[in-house]
Design a protein that fits this description.
321 residues; Immunoglobulin-like; 5-stranded mixed β-sheet; 5-stranded antiparallel β-sheet; 22 strands; 40% strand; signal; Spore coat U domain-containing protein; Spore_coat_component
């Protein structure tokens, strides 16, 4: 009697082009808005991004993610925006892409599968890829200077098909989750908006005929800032006096004095004016309101009257914090 023995062989055929993919939670890359002055922060939307929001995947799929697949991000924080040294907050909005099409609400899971963003990123194309995150500040933040920062908790959860068998059925899934922190920062610097009207002495036949000009200039500086305002000596100073100059190099001496007094307003030391010395709203800067400094300008009457002509000078105002 003969006996036949054989080996049973089994095989599973995978559809052409099928591959495997794996995702993992990885350390994030910080996002920085950089260094901006307070006016920029208050009046203009500022943008920043993180090149890695904590999810990295490799592998490949040949079809768009199905309705049973999911890539979700959930972002939470104990604060409501970037917090500075005095407790001021700069709010900002999170986005899944570089436009404003897909805002991410804090505390609410955001589903990437429905956006097509992962396909554009090539997240599962065979080489490790990270998912970026984008931020835009909100206009209107009147804040003090200093370093601002917020720490976000970024939680990813994913569940997607990693392999397609014969007949197009899923034969494997990658399911996982992970949380990492992401730091967002912005540095606010001091800034001022200055309004300085020209000084006009009009016309007179002799130096004694020029009237005193009483005017003011206004300064709006960063919230909470202390500063001093200086006026330089102009372009033609001589013997401690400012001078206007004619096109043929004749001179007419004049000066600018603090408030309604006789103390010369200059650019060095006590000749400067402090924010606490403002005639209107003295003290620290408010960020939005103006502090007003009065002054009077006079042509010196103890000089000889120069030849008739047009005389002019240019004086630079500077603010020091």
């Amino acid at each position: 009697m003969g006996c036949w023995r054989g080996l049973l062989a089994g095989a599973s055929l995978l559809a052409a082009g099928t591959a495997w993919a794996q995702c993992t939670s990885v350390v994030t890359a910080p996002a920085a808005f950089g260094s901006l002055n307070s006016t920029q922060v208050r009046s203009t939307v500022q943008m920043a991004s993180s090149s890695n929001s904590g999810l990295q995947c490799s592998g490949s799929v040949l079809s768009v993610l199905s309705s049973t697949d999911s890539f979700k991000i959930k972002i939470t924080a104990t604060t409501s925006g970037l917090v500075g040294p005095t407790g001021d907050v700069i709010p900002y909005t999170l986005y899944a892409d570089a436009t404003t099409t897909y805002p991410i609400t804090r505390g609410t899971s955001f589903e990437y599968r429905t956006t097509g963003i992962l396909d554009v990123l090539g997240l599962l194309n065979g080489t490790p890829k990270n998912v970026p995150l984008y931020m835009r500040t909100q206009v209107g933040s009147n804040v003090a200077a200093g370093a601002y920062q917020e720490t976000l908790n970024v939680e990813w959860t994913w569940d997607y098909c990693t392999g397609i068998g014969a007949g197009g059925f899923c034969i494997g899934r990658d399911t996982g989750s992970g949380s990492k922190t992401l730091t967002v920062s912005l540095t606010v610097t001091n800034d001022c908006q200055i309004t300085t009207p020209d000084i006009s002495f009009a016309s007179a036949p002799v130096v004694a005929g020029f009237a005193t000009v009483n005017q003011n200039l206004s300064v709006s500086c960063t919230k909470g800032s202390t500063y001093t305002v200086g006026l330089d000596d102009g372009q033609n100073v001589a013997s401690g006096r400012r001078r206007m100059k004619s096109p043929v190099n004749d001179y007419l001496a004049y000066d600018i004095f603090k408030s309604a007094g006789v103390q010369r307003w200059g650019s060095v030391g006590a000749a400067r004016r402090a924010s606490s010395d403002a005639d209107v709203n003295p003290g620290v800067g408010t960020g939005t309101g103006s502090q007003v400094f009065n002054y009077n300008a006079r042509v010196y009457t103890d000089q000889a009257t120069p030849p008739a002509g047009s005389y002019a000078d240019s004086v630079i105002l500077d603010v020091q914090f």
